[in-house]
Amino acid sequence: MIEKILIKDFTYELPPERIALHALANRDQSKLLVYRNGNIEHDRFTNLTSFLPSDSTLFFNDTKVIPARLIFQKETGASIELFLLNPVAPTTLVQLAMETRGTAKWQCAIGNLKRWPDWLILTMHLAGVTLNATLIDREQRIVEFTWKPESKTFAEVITQVGSIPLPPYLNRKVEATDRISYQTVYSAHEGAVAAPTAGLHFTNTILDLLKANGHTTEFLTLHVSAGTFQPVKVENATEHIMHSEQVVITKENLEAMLSAKPIIAVGTTSLRTLESLYWYGVKLIENPNSEFSIIQQDAYTLPPHHTKETALAKVLQKINELGTNSLTGETAIYIMPGYTFRMVDALITNFHQPGSTLMLLVAAFVGSDWKRIYEQALEGGYRFLSYGDSSLLFLKKD
Predict the structure, then answer these.
(1) Antiparallel, parallel or unpaired: β 293-294 and 326-331
(2) How many CB atoms lie within 10 A of CB 205?
(3) 187, 26 contact by CB (below 8 A)
(4) Cα(88)–Cα(124) distance, rounded to whole angstroms?
(5) Of 371, 107, 379, 327, the residue nearest 221 (C-alpha)
(6) Phi, psi of 395 (to 5 degrees)
(7) CA dist., res. 337 & res. 5, Å (int)
(8) How confident is the model at residue 359 (pLDDT cuts 50, 70, 90)?
(9) Alpha-carbon distance 279 to 315, whole Å?
(10) Whole-model pTM?
């Protein structure tokens, strides 16, 4: 295990005016910084395909952002804000939880909790929907929701009454356009509370262009949790507790990974999913009954000598044994400088917050050159964070 990484070594000064508060009118018109073999080039995202190696396979995260902010008004005028985190019942699987009807239990972050007595059922009526919320576990912040009409799914209900949860650093109110701009064009499976922002630059035109140029597109799912915004509050970054997120991969994904070369991860969430699959394969080699659950220490304590092909073949064997087409698991993989990448050759990603776990991931991918990359992005007028510009980073190899 890596013993010490000072988080102060992975910070930089980000002027507030460089944070993009809104998406571009045309999402594929963002700037594109390309880093390869120590060299940096500048272009437009519309020209992405000209920088990709031939026969690349791009892995996208097709999670869909849900309107996870629910604001209830008490009769006294006080508001109680609920932020959906994880489903508890009748299922803990995010995608199935979104399809439940009539009732559901979720763990929530709760604003103004002290003003919500246990006996008070919160109610809101909006757009023909009545949604009730009952606090059933104050310590764990478990809330039971019931709604009418019961024929509606939970996804349909919160779409009508909830708000898109914009990142806190945008520090502005949600606007109607965010429902579209803070969602990838290929989003399919509801369950994320934050967008996989690297994918926001892609349009259907760009996706068609990728295929026309002989590239393969694959879609896996990681439901981005609120933990993605959790700051590193410790001096030694190795002591940070990494959040866990639910992932869903298919048999077709695995087969594509085994045959793909090179692999391009669209976003850090896709990268974390791909790398997690390698470690799950290693766990299966060690113990065929291992659950699909990757904790943050796994990448530094499990045997590191297995090949990508051997590890993935074990996962594919597992999915065949189960007689299913998909696997659902959890990952809290923590990628920081010193990590050895097993799956990914290049990464498409935005420009991240100073001193964040995502900054550590980028530094692990490109080494100390991350400083040059970010310096040039700042000097070149790039827009930063979720609605900001893009980069294509090729893995720096020893």
Answers:
(1) parallel
(2) 11
(3) no
(4) 22
(5) 327
(6) -55, 130
(7) 8
(8) very high
(9) 10
(10) 0.94
